[in-house]
Amino acid sequence: MSLYDEGHTVAGWTGFGIATLGSGVVGLGMCTASLPLVAGGLAGVAVSVLVTWVLHLAGWGKPPGVRPRGEWGMRVRDAQAQEGHPGCVSCRLAGRGRWAVVAGAAGRPTAAESIPVSPIE
């Protein structure tokens, strides 16, 4: 078992399954030179992104980073999903989450910068 249990969630596997079907339809459309099949497959891939996002927000995904070992199971819902995860792009797009507050130039609080994804940033 990996240390980070990436993708071992209902949201992750559901999104993967829908995206795989959409990609297969795109491939079939390319082989048969059918523009409607290619468009339908691309729409399926777009639907997979939306379904994964909705399931993540409903608690069937996982926050970024390491979870405690007791929360690694597929049937364990994420209790933090309703408030939003710190550093989670999906939660930010939904208007959820905790922003760190720092004093701005005029003394007004402003949102802190996001957490870097890689050490290169």
Structural class: mainly alpha
Shape: elongated
Share of residues in strands:
under 5%
Instruction: Give me the strand/helix succession.
Output: HHHEE
N-end to C-end Cα span: 30 Å
Number of contiguous helices: 3
What value does the average pLDDT take? Answer: 79
Major β-sheet profile: 2 strands, antiparallel
Number of strands: 2
Helix content: 40-55%
Low-confidence stretches: 100-104
Strand order in space, largest sheet? 1-2
Radius of gyration: 18 Å
Q: Explain this structure to me?
A:
This protein has helices at 10-32, 35-60, 89-93; strands at residues 101-103, 109-111. With 121 residues, it is mainly α. It starts with 9 loop residues before the first helix and ends in a 10-residue tail after the last strand. α1 packs antiparallel against α2 (35-60).
Give the topology, please.
Elements lengths: L9 H23 L2 H26 L28 H5 L7 E3 L5 E3 L10
Antiparallel strand pairs: 1-2
Provide a quick synopsis of the model.
The two termini are 30 Å apart. It contains three helices and two strands.
Distinctive features:
two-stranded antiparallel sheet, mainly alpha, elongated, about 120 residues
